[in-house]
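Now read this:
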Amino acid sequence: MISGILLVIITIFFPPVGVYLVSGCGADLLINICLTILGYIPGHIHAFFLEYIFYQRREDAREGRVAARRAPGVYSENVQTGGGAQVGYGTMPAQQGPPPPGYH
């Protein structure tokens, strides 16, 4: 993964590249490109918001805390999980919640 300081420097000069490095190619990148075209400052605000959520969720995951809700306005699963997507077995998603009754 890219260093946080390098990511901020890249985002200062061109916000969509910073968003791409954090969230990949998806809705967040398209939104950021549109915001950057409409105004350079809105593109920056959106990019730094995504980076803040990414690093906050990443730190929470390292400390064993799990976010109870999704961050508003963030569509990338990579950003929502801080880069550590919850992987289940094969193509099965990870099970959430308590174990089923009778499970010992």
